[in-house]
Amino acid sequence: MPLTSYEEIASYATMIGYVTKVGYMPPWRASSKAHALKGENILSKEELQSIQQWIKDGFPQGDPKTLPPAPLTQAGEEMSAPDLVVSMTEAFEQYGVYYDQYRVFVLPIHLPEDRMVSAIEFVPGKNSIVRGALLSVDTGEEVMPLDEWDPQYGYFSFGEIGFVPDESRWYSWQPGKGKSEFPEGQGLYLPKDAKLLLHLHYGPTGVPEKDSSHINLQFSKSAQTQQQFTLPLVHPYSMTNDSFYLPAGETTRYHASFTVPFDLELHGLFPHSHLLGKHWELFTVSADRSASQSLLKIEDWDFNWKQQYEFEAPLMLKQGTTIHALAAYDNTSENLLNPSDPPRSMNWGKRMFEEMFLVYFSLVKHQAKEQKQYSFSLLPGAVNAKKTTPLVLRFQNQKRQSFTCRVKDFSGKVQMDLFDQKEFKKGEHQILVDLQDLEWGNYYLELQAKDQIDRHLFVLLAADLFD
Hints:
Elements: H1 6-11, H2 13-21, H3 45-56, E1 84-87, E2 92-94, E3 101-108, E4 115-123, E5 130-138, H4 143-149, E6 155-156, E7 167-173, E8 180-181, E9 186-190, E10 195-202, E11 209-211, E12 214-219, E13 226-227, E14 229-234, E15 251-259, E16 264-272, E17 277-285, E18 292-298, E19 309-317, E20 322-330, E21 358-365, E22 376-378, E23 384-385, E24 391-397, E25 401-409, E26 414-424, E27 427-433, E28 441-449, E29 452-460
Parallel strand pairs: 9-13, 23-29
Antiparallel strand pairs: 1-12, 2-11, 3-6, 3-10, 4-8, 4-9, 4-12, 5-7, 5-10, 14-21, 15-20, 16-19, 16-21, 17-18, 17-20, 22-24, 24-27, 25-26, 25-28, 28-29
Helix pairs in contact: 2-3
């Protein structure tokens, strides 16, 4: 519904009073006040009181001369001269039915070389039906059978995209979010010949509507740009519970934790559960267990308003810090959103009659300003890994050097020795790492030369988690 004039707002006055009073609107679920979040969509106590008083007074009109300018229409775009525009090649027709739809569109971009994205803007083709967008990046061919299976443009996929891509949730968008610019010296990695996987959430409508959305990209001009990457570090393999199972008629609570293996900057969090989810809480405990801090708390989880929560200023996660995640689920008849009546026991899965326990972390490897330049560096690459496809280790060095490379888990224990004091000539190198013998979970590659070291996080996830 439009709320751009007095007449439009006054016609919904009673409803506005109700939904703001009970806290259903505005749609902002984070309740933690520990850290400022970007785009906090909240009303103060005084503003809420003003709305109630306005309704009691018969919702009088204010001075028309003080009316703010109307917001940008859907044709308005903030990025005037993008370096690349990636568009849906067809218009998808939303069916015109009263339920939500989820669709993945495969957008090849054919870049001749790797690039770092310094700014990104998602532009919905039809504002009235596009409720949210998630972008993932993949360089393989696993998505093609899914796309070919569905006779319509794109393919249906609820929750996730149906397999483990190189990077899940590379970027996320929700209504009201404009252009995103990354801090100087940081950006998103976009490999050559990659595919953007655009996962769109279409809201219900009574009439068929067509959408053809696009993405605007600006590339970094700097040769030294750090990768901001997003990883699902909380998942079934980092849970402390024995298994993920939600018995019918019961409320349950699940916990996961991991230790930060080296200094990281935390830029955002994206918790994910379905209709049985009720509460989320994420917090840290320092390495010496002397201090803790809240990262994010959602006391009234609502799947329909899931989103990426981005911090106004990145949070430093020191090596040895433990991250904890807690989620509560209500599989009773008291939960009015329960998709089963009577309640039925649920396992893991992406469908409405199943559940998930995931948290995505947007991170940057911390590098102190006084830290000297390495004579080598790991190059950006895939952050999710598959046992069926070797992980590509890429690095470049400015001189002939000997390197040691290992795969370690988050406790620092060596899981694989790739090579020890092996000499490499100056230049860029690419090595395929076979991950068949690794257990599922969180890992990092560590490349070392004398007293210099660089690391690369990755998560090894089973593809059937997202089937």
